Every structure is written in structure tokens, then in C-alpha cells.
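Re: your question from the hallway

Yes, I did run it. Sequences:
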Amino acid sequence: MKRETIRVWFLVHKWTSLICTLFLLMLCLTGLPLIFHDEIDLATGDHIPLSGPASSSDDPALLPLDTMVEKALALRPGEVPLFMGFANDSPLLTVTTGPTPDAAERDMTLLLFDRATGATIGDPDRKGITDFLLQLHTDMFLGLPGMLFLGTMGLLFVLSLISGTILYAPFMRKLDFGTLRLGRSRRLIWLDWHNLLGIVALAWMCVVGITGILNAFATPIADNWRTTALADMTGAHRGEGALPPERYGSLDRAMASARKALPGSNPQFIGFPGGSFSTDRHYAVFFQGKSALTKELLTPALIDAETGALVDVRPMPVSMKALQLSRPLHFGDYGGLPLKLLWATLDIFLIIVLGSGVYLWLGHGKRRSPPAAAGDTRTAVVPAEPAP
Amino acid sequence: MMRSVFAIPAILAVTSLFGLIVALTGEGWRDVLGIFALSLPLLAVAHAWTKASQTRSSARTREKQRR
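Structure:
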């Protein structure tokens, strides 16, 4: 690699890293406890385990969906249902309500129910520590602009990973893999750690970075899906105007016709008419696949909200599939506690890479101070001689 | 030259990606395999650290003996 090429990549690495480091550090520090959000919620009492049939099943012991909607609206009079979420391992059922069918996220209320007994669980206004961390991690309490901003920081992070990998070659040309010059200057030690941890965690950092970007752009991706693919599914109904909430038909009848189209599958959530996951006139029931992989991939069934008749069932386009797969790959919550511990260790590696990067940048000016410049290669942090 | 610098990093990257995906696409033995593959980067760091510490301590011993 030519000296000039190295210099250009060095500048790319320096600036992309500098801009995103502070935010990446925040993401790493909030992300670390979030890896263990299940365990934390359980320990702090923010998650109460329920026992009974899964709320996503059609077990006869479960209460009808219409009853659950009624219970939710009784708690939030004058509001409309927006989403209903199901669990596969307990009778936990969530209902999200809001003042209007197209309510903004900050105006929504999430209610938790036991679908076996109909009882409400927990206080909808109570926010646990993981809720706070997740909000900070997702959008820094700034809503969509915050998400898009962090997504942009993610893009810079991926650029710094690419430039860092390219620079790894000239820096390591004369060194064996994993060289840590522990007896040498502090600067050289941190450079070695930066290079070693950065290169071993490279694939993981790329995956978590790219899936983080996808999650940050979830809103525009879902918006695009709604206006293209979802609109396509309802072709004939376009232009009929929104269905007023008082004319919403039975949810149980809608669910029954959806189950008939996708036998054996269970729903993950329902998008009510007017929301960001449905149209103005349909219940959109999102079904999970049965295998470990397709469990993450949802298939929407559109049901006429007034009549309960099935309109269409169609797999999601590639962009939505990528978005859905990017969630587990970002959160690392799909392989039990051992995978979470690996996720945490790699997250700590990344924190060290970020910290040592800042350290190396802060000391950058000193490098040119006389002792180092006078041929003292022990303290200078420069790549090995470029190949002729 | 380039090949040797990136040989081990490339192996680690491929096994990490394999581990991430194999654990995502199944349960049971696939999770175990995925976790094993994804722990290789950690083992590489542990190995490098042990080796470097040994080198340093043997260098120190040599220095003491010389004195």
C-alpha cells in the first residue's frame, strides 16, 4: 500500500471514528445491560411471569379477543385500539390504545393483560430501568429524528470499521497476529489492544452495526412497505376512506378467518386499522413461522375489519424480512444466556476499541514531539514501512 | 504479505458469521455450535494475552539474571 493511500484511509478512519465515538460509547454502555433485559426485568419486578396457555394460541381456556379489547377500552375510555400483541410462552396479552387510529407513539398507552383471567398486569405508566435504557439506546428521547441520527452514526461506525480494517494491514505488516507489546510504551500497548480487539470482533461489530442501522431506519422501511406492498394487497379497497372505529367488526371472527388461511401458525401481533402496520380498513394479523428462523419472519394476513373476511395473505418483501432478522441479530437474544454473555464480552471489546481509539487520537500530537521524531521507534505509532 | 496479515482475522470473521447465523436458524445443537464458533474471537484474545504476558515475564527474568 502506498504511503499516500495509507494517509487517506487514516484520515477516513480518524474522522468517521471521532464523529461517532461518543454516541457509539453511549450505545455500547446502554446496550450492555439491555442484553440482559429479561433477567433485569425479572429481578426488579418489572416483569411478572404468568402461567397458563400461550395467549397466541387458540386454547379454549383463553378469553375471546373481543372481550380483551373491551377490557382495554374500559380502562381507556374514548380511545381506540391500535395494536394487540401475543406471547408464545404465557397468557400475557398486550393492547395498545390511543386517542385516534393514527395516534403518534408518545400518545399511545400499553396495557398488559392475562388472557386466561382477563386481569390487568402492572401499571401501564410505570417505566422500568430497561425501558429508560432502551429509549435512550433507540432514539435518545428524540423520536424519529433521534433514531435517524443514531442510524447515521451507525453508518459512520461501519465506515470506520472498513477503514480500520484496511489500516490493519500496514500496521501489522511486520507483526504476528495477536502481538501485544506489553513491556513497551503505554501508547504502543493500547495500539496493540485496539488492533487486536478490533480485528477479532470485526465480524460481530459489522453485524451489530449494520443491523443497528436497519433498526434505526425501521420507520421509513415500514412506511415504504405500507405504501407499496401492503397497499398492493388491498388493491380493490383503495380510496374508500378510513373505517370509523365504531364499525370495527369482531376481532375473533377476523382471527378465525386468518387462522384458516395459515393453519398451524400463531399470531405475534395485530395492527388495527389506521396504524402504521395496517391500512385504513383492515385488521392486519402478523403470523409467526414455525421454525427457529421463520419464527422471526412474519407473514401478514389482511382481514376486512368490518366484515371479518380474509382479503389477502402475502409474505413480506426482502426489506421487511431483513428488518425482522436484524432485530435478533442486533439484540443477541436468540441463543440463551451463553450467547448473551458472548454478546456482552464482545460489547466490552468494542468499548475498549473505542476508548483506546480516543486515547491514541489524544496522544497523536505528542507523537511528533522531539524524542519520538528522533528515530525512537519504541514510542512512535506508525505503520510499518510500506511495501516497495 | 497481505495474505498472512489477514489469514487469522479472516478465519475468525468467517467462523463468527457462521456462529451468528447457525444459532439464529435453529435451536439445540445449532445454538451450541453457534456459541462455540462465536467464542473463538475471545479465545484468540485470551491466547494472545497469555502469550504476551509469558514473553514479558521471561524477558524480565532474563534481565534480572543478567544483573
